[in-house]
Each structure stands twice: as structure tokens, then as C-alpha cells.
Amino acid sequence: MTPPDPDRTAGSRPEQAVSRPGHIGDRPDHATGGSERTELADRALSTVSFRGPLTGSQLHEALGAGGFPLWQACLGDPRLAHRVIGKRYVRLDIKLDGYVRLSPSILREFLTYTVVGPADEPDALDAAAAELADHIEQVSRRKLYTARRIMDDITRPFLTDPLLAGHFCVAIAGDIVYGMAHDVLRPERSTGILVQGSDLDIVVLVGDDAPDGLVTTLDEAIYARKYFYLRNPGFREELDYIVKPLATLRAQSGLADFHDMVACKVWRESRLLCGDEGLFRAGKQVLAAAGVGDRLDTLAREAAEARAAQQQRLLTLPVDELRDGDLGLFYTAEESEEFH
Length: 340
Hints:
By secondary structure, this protein is of the alpha+beta class. Helices cover about 50% and strands about 15% of the residues. It is elongated and about 70 Å long.
């Protein structure tokens, strides 16, 4: 998820906690040199030769190896091949110089969106990659449908009121709009309740001429149902949302600080769920008029170049030389809770 918008009213998104021994992101207790890496690659090759191509997460479960040495072994050994599913897209992270990175992180991409198999069995690898791609697409569609269903339910009293219906719109952002949603169970931070993977990133935009109090009323309506959808076994979805006036987005389009950049990036990538389409387009036009798209496109190019250089360096970095700053390039601060 993107870092929280400063005027966000809901809590930030947690990630999955891993309870089994041998945490994915752990630094090994000993140096992993060439011989150890080759041994790990041998084990990975034996596993995928017997079981067929596997995701990075499945290999981790099978071998019990740390995420970093396993990633190095799988991507660095010519006997193993891999396919990466989906796309990379810009995320903003206040803990990074320049604020920009690509999502998924290197480790998330390996665990969730990569299949590994014997290099001499490309057909089997392609078939496994197609199956994974189909699963991710289905999850993303299901999440989009669920988000639309939830927000239609919450906002129906407003949508059916002729005095209010034309004054707000509801949009979704995050993994779902990129077709990259996942369904890996993870605990919600404040309650510990297991939720179904990617959260639902919702932005509600309220028009300049809206009746007084509409922002507050919409916020209260969503908050009142947030924990129902979190706790209900039929949903178990985390709803992360913000309600704000168009005037706020207009001010944020000046990109005065990091938080403005996050807010504008979220709206630029968003898709309409329900509400007034004209207002939704007006919000997009605010960003276009301010040149926000060009700025974000520049950041995307910078992030892609940085990712390529970082990945190449990490692939050849001896594990005993790995530092905390290197781990920050391998997975995000948010993900550290999951991978530890």
C-alpha cells in the first residue's frame, strides 16, 4: 500500500505476520558464500524437479531457507529459470532517499509473483506462470467486485438522495487497480484478525458545492461499517479509506511535500467505483492541469533505473556483507513485520 495520506481517517495497512520458524527476511547466522549458495540452489532444483515449478513462497516453505539467500540462489543459478507475473508500479516511501520505489518489492515479487523451475523445462514453467497469472487476475477481479459491493452498500443512502448524489464519488486505488491483488492471509494490525490479502484502498472525493457536513457524514458512515467488513467471516476485508473535499486535492496538486505526492499518486491511479462520474473526472483534471502526471512519470523512470541497479548489486552481494540498508532495498519497512 502507499504510505498513508496525511488526512486519512482510517488506520494504516498492516502486513502478514509469519509465525513459522525461519522468518523469510532473516539474515542468516553465518556467511552464505558460493558453496552454500550452490548447495541451496541444488536443493531448490531437486525440489522443483520433483514437484514441478513453484512460487518463491512455496519454495521457502519447502526448504525453510531465508528469503535473501533463496532469492539469490534461484535467480543466480543457470540451472534454474523463473517467470515474473504482473507489473511493477511506483510507490512512495518516506524512508527512502528520493521517496520513490517500485512495487512489489524485490522479496514480495519473488515470493508471490514469481515461479521457479528447472531451466530445461520451459513449457512446464510457462504453464505454471500462466496459472499464477490467472489466479492473480481472479483475485483482483474479486477484490474489485467486493469493493464495489461494500461501498455501494455503505453509500446507498447518499446515492439515492437527490440532494447528495451529485456531490461525491468513490474511487479505489492500490494493488487492485493494477491487477496485482493477492489473497495471502495476514493479521490486521489493531485487532489481529486475519484478513484476505490486499486491503481495499478507498478514496471518497466531495465536490466544492457539496452541502455542509457531507465530508463528516460520509466519513462516519464508512467508519461505522469498517469493522463489520473486517470481522464478518463472509468478507474479512480491511477497508482503508479517506474522505476529502476536491479543494484539498486541488491544494495537494502543488506537490508541496511528500504527503501531497502520495495523495496525488493515489488519485491518479484510482478507478471509479460509484458516485458522480463528472466529479471523478474533475479530480483527474485537477492533477493533469498541475502537471502531476509528468512528475510521477519521471519518478517512475527513476525508480525503474534504481531497481535494476539495486537488484543487480544484491544478486552478487555476499550475505555476510548484507547491511540493514541493503535489506531496506530488498523489502519495505511495512513488509518487515511480515517477513520477520
